[in-house]
Amino acid sequence: MLRLLNLELQKLLLNRTSKILIFISFILPLFIILISSFKIPFFGYFTIELGEWGVFNFPMIWHLVTYFAAHFKLFFAIVVVSMIGNEYSNKTIKQNLIDGLSKKEFILSKFYTIVFFSLISTVIIFILSLCIGLYYSSYNEFGIIIRETEFLLAYFIKLIGFFSLCLLLGMLVKRSAFALAFLFVLFIIEWILYGIIWKFSTEEIATRIQNFFPLKSIYKLIDWPFLRIASTKAPNNKELIHDYAVHGYEIVIVLCWTALFIFLSYRLLKKRDL
Amino acid sequence: MEPILTINNLTKKFGYLTAVKDLSFTINKGNVYGILGPNGSGKSTTLGVVLNVVNKTHGDFKWFDGQTTTHDALKKVGAIIERPNFYPYMTATQNLKLVCRIKGVDYSKVEEKLDLVGLLERKDSKFKTFSLGMKQRLAIASALLNDPEILILDEPTNGLDPQGIHQIREIIKQIAAKGTTILLASHLLDEVEKVCSHVVVLRKGAKLYSGRVDEMISSHGFFELKSNKQDDLIKLLENNPSFKSIKEKNGLITAFLNEPMKSEDFNKYLFEKGIILTHLVQRKESLEEQFLQLTDNK
Prior knowledge:
Chain A: It comes from Jejuia spongiicola. Chain A: It holds the Pfam family ABC2_membrane_2. Chain A: Keywords: Membrane, Transmembrane, Transmembrane helix. Chain A: The chain crosses the membrane at residues 20-40, 60-84, 111-136, 151-170, 177-197, 251-269. The structure holds 2 protein chains of 2 kinds. The longest helix of chain A is centred in the middle third of the chain and has 34 residues, at 103-136. Chain A is 74% helix and 2% strand. Chain A is mainly alpha-helical. By secondary structure, chain B is of the alpha/beta class. Chain B folds into 2 domains: 3-215, Rossmann fold (3-Layer(aba) Sandwich); 222-297, 2-Layer Sandwich (Alpha-Beta Plaits), CATH 3.30.70. Helix content of chain B is 33%, strand content 30%. Chain B has a 6-stranded mixed β-sheet with strand order 5-6-7-3-8-9, sandwiched between helices. A 4-stranded antiparallel β-sheet of chain B has the order 11-12-10-13, covered by helices on one side. In chain B, strands 2-1-4 form a 3-stranded antiparallel β-sheet, covered by helices on one side. Chain B is elongated, with a radius of gyration of 24 Å. The interface between A and B is medium-sized, with 28 and 31 residues.
């Protein structure tokens, strides 16, 4: 396992483009979250300090930070897609197999890399949130701090699921740019299907079904946090009460998709003549 | 003899096109094999199948004694297919280290093999800065990293300039001299003739011949003749049962033998008959002529 991971890390870290993209996908969210936690003066008229609004309180911070950080997964998605695309365009995939890597090992080395970077990202987010939280939060009891850390698990699963989808698309179309375009097309298809189902049934049923779709199920792991922030400001407003928790079945759905994506990538490679 | 690769009734179809048709042959340890065939005769496809990058349609093949999986067997094989494929952004050393990781070989081999192909002084240059000849040499170094039991080369001199071709051939000869089994696919006949002891001839995916190069056609060679009395000579040869056919072209008579005959005996015989030769050459068919004969007949 370590051999396969090392193999892929060498391929990635010696490539300048992917090194920069990896750097961006890890450092940029850190930077933005860190800045947003500072006092931001607006030309002396007023200052914005998000910490004052209570958004950095435990346990809310876990939700908020993972939600925002997840958006930067798109940078690493480019890396994932190009790590397949490059193997095809350099024909190194063929050479790797000839040199004695099995097709299974090839897919696994990519998958381990995805898990590895998702884990690093999760750990970074954990440490950062903990620091900011300890600094701003009004509650510092251990019990409250570890409450809702399931958002971190959701974040981890979300990254793995999304990158596995990118891996499959990369294997499918062999070219990085097309694979990303395909991702966008898939996003549109999901919403079109949603529209069609809604037309023939109700919005509620459509939403329920849509929650099983690959992209939507990955997104749904960590819900939109603003209603939650608003509800803390106006606790009695019934309209703002919303189910934002991470549910076990949501994680199971995404894990099923992930398994399917990896399996299909392998099947695709196995069937293909290079 | 110890078999290294055994292919049994291998067939590969691409849609309705049959690239390899019911092919069987065995590669034994210690010989230098050539796979000959015109472009599109299924050489690369056959190699692709045994190298785990092309899926077979029917038949089977086994590496060594058939006990290891193909990808594990490939760790004991060195192979280059068509063009050298490496990561352009990595240096020669980095690329070879990656191959070491895949094959499970110690890094110490890297410099040794780079030295063998004469790339040691360029070891820290990126692959994309290499010329085609250097890329091909790097590919050979990479194929040799694990000191393979068999080296498979598919058109190794394709697209190289004369110096490049010469360098590659010298390297191949050095490796063959060490007793490594080599399988060389090529459409360049002189290349195969120069280095191979055994040959497999393919056409349209089917095997026409496999065996030793010198036994490829049961032939006793031919004489090329010119004399003072051409017409008498032709008449004499036509009546002689030792010759199966006579051709005349631009005043040069080519007489194909039915049985072995020494040139001195032949010369003496003609002299006694009153024919004086002005030109006498005894030759065996070159591989090219044999090959063309084989591929034309069927």
